[in-house]
């Protein structure tokens, strides 16, 4: 399926401000990028680099005044399977590839080493078979027991905060699922990008868990994980996948996000 994603950020920049951005899509299996645009208005020089997670990143110094950053992509993507067959199982720690090991460690927003997180995870999974069934039980529990609401959490909110407050947005849902999975030694990471259907369109965050010998998608905002997605980046948690990180005095005035399934539109 061909899919288009577009995001536009409008800033008021009060002093020349260095920024680091993660707005261009990953080149990887499952999504073939055939059209892309990245633009800063007014035009400024920017450089690009690949971070330690393989994400495409951009750096620039934004000038004073009104600045608009636009990123667009069209890609061939496959629909997220709702239930793989057979269900992949738990991978013993000694059998995990070296580059997967960091995804079972606690991180800034996902305090998987805390007893409150482990106890809740153990309660949620019950007698579920180790592996996919455990992660799905966690995903489903978070969907059913956490309320989706803007304006309640912020950039400091952690998985433990969500255990106590039970209200947040996709970023918070994702952090909680990741922490619960890691407490059971299941590698989990945060993935961000475009999805074709959201009640309130935004850049989206979801979980990928390493099971069997590959990564599988779990989306706790949805009743059941489904849809078409374009991945922009992934990392341990939100600290690794911020869309725009600023090092100065500027304010985001508004952001718009659009997605389209192009073949469905033309059918």
TrEMBL record:
InterPro entries: Bac_transglu_N (IPR013589), Papain-like_cys_pep_sf (IPR038765), Transglutaminase-like (IPR002931). Residues 162-222 form the Transglutaminase-like domain. Gene3D superfamilies: 2.60.40.2250, 3.10.620.30. SUPFAM superfamilies: Cysteine proteinases. This is Transglutaminase-like domain-containing protein. It comes from Persicitalea jodogahamensis.
């Amino acid at each position: 399926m061909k899919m288009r994603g577009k995001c536009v950020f409008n800033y008021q920049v009060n002093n020349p401000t260095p920024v680091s951005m993660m707005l261009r899509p990953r080149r990887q299996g499952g999504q073939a990028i055939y059209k892309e645009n990245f633009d800063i208005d007014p035009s400024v020089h920017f450089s690009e680099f690949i971070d330690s997670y393989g994400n495409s990143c951009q750096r620039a110094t934004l000038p004073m005044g009104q600045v608009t950053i636009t990123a667009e992509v069209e890609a061939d993507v496959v629909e997220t399977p709702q239930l793989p067959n057979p269900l992949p199982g738990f991978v013993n720690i000694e059998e995990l590839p070296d580059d997967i090991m960091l995804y079972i460690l606690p991180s800034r927003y996902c305090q998987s080493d805390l007893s409150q997180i482990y106890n809740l995870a153990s309660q949620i999974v019950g007698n579920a078979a180790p592996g996919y069934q455990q992660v799905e039980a966690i995903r489903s529990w978070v969907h059913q027991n956490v309320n989706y609401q803007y304006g309640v959490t912020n950039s400091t909110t952690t998985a433990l905060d969500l255990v106590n407050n039970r209200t947040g947005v996709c970023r918070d849902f994702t952090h909680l699922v990741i922490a619960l999975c890691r407490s059971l030694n299941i590698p989990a990471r945060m993935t961000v990008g475009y999805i074709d259907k959201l009640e309130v369109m935004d850049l989206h965050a979801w979980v990928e868990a390493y099971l069997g010998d590959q990564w599988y998608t779990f989306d706790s905002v949805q009743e059941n994980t489904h849809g078409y997605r374009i991945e922009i980046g992934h990392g341990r948690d939100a600290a690794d996948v911020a869309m725009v990180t600023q090092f100065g005095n500027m304010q985001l005035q508004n952001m718009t996000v659009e997605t389209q399934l192009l073949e469905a539109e033309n059918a």
